[in-house]
Amino acid sequence: MHYYRYENAEVSFCYKYLMFSYNIIFWLAGAAFIAIGFWAWSEKGVLLDLTQVTRLHGFDPVWLVLLVGAITFILGFAGCVGALRENICLLKFFSGVIGLIFFLELTAAVLAFVFQDNVREWINDFFLANVKAYREDIDLQNLIDSLQKLNHCCGAKEPDDWNLNVYFNCTNNNPSRERCGVPFSCCLSDPADSVLNTQCGYDVRKHLKGDWINYIYIKGCIPALEEWLPRNLYIVAGVFIIISLLQMMGIFLARTLIVDIEKTSTNHLKIASGFPFKYVFGTFLYCFPKTL
């Protein structure tokens, strides 16, 4: 029987548990996102009446929470178990998906820069579609209100965009009390107000357009976003760089572990070279890596 000595024939303890620590946070975060998503759905009664899903005409933020949670949970699970059990298949899956996500992010950023007008039009149509469904979903309503309050804006391009909503439509045959109004999140904030006035937007658009400036924000959210991006370009770029570095760190750890595991498996196969069933033995070691 012939024996061979290799340097670094064992899997690095440091990389193994760095990979585990890196992913346990994402695994737990993914589980938390999924739990929050299902809790939000149960609060809206969707879990009891699944037909409500087909009646939602706007964007439901819960879908985004569940999607992010599911992807994060699966990747965290693959990274944690792959590192602890030294499973090459799970580690390759983890690094491959992270690499794909990074590529998609980079592609989306380049396309958004090249096709700025198309992206602007898409965002405008998306916002208008959700203005129509403002009262149909409480999570969507809170999302739009937060967006308008934080950016001091109203509607997609102007306050009159709220005519698309049946409750705020300014036609004479509209029986809604909110007719010719806007949501309270469009109202100018007054630091002296200690109680939120949810009726401050009633009948505002019955006034002359020149007087709206005294009651509500007259800038649309699309122009407000276009002004916000240049002012915060360094923050946006910094966030993108940090996310990219974290993704590359995950890929580096996974690929390093894969190389160590393959070296270890090769070493075991060399040791078993004197046996007549060396290939069966080597395959067994590869497919069933050692446990903790």
From TrEMBL:
It is a multi-pass membrane protein. One of its GO terms (cellular component) is plasma membrane. PANTHER family: TETRASPANIN (PTHR19282), TETRASPANIN-14 (PTHR19282:SF261). It comes from Oncorhynchus mykiss (Rainbow trout). Pfam families: Tetraspanin. This is Tetraspanin. It comes from the Eukaryota. The chain crosses the membrane at residues 20-41, 61-81, 93-115, 233-254. Keywords: Cell membrane, Disulfide bond, Glycoprotein, Membrane, Transmembrane, Transmembrane helix. Coiled coil: none annotated.
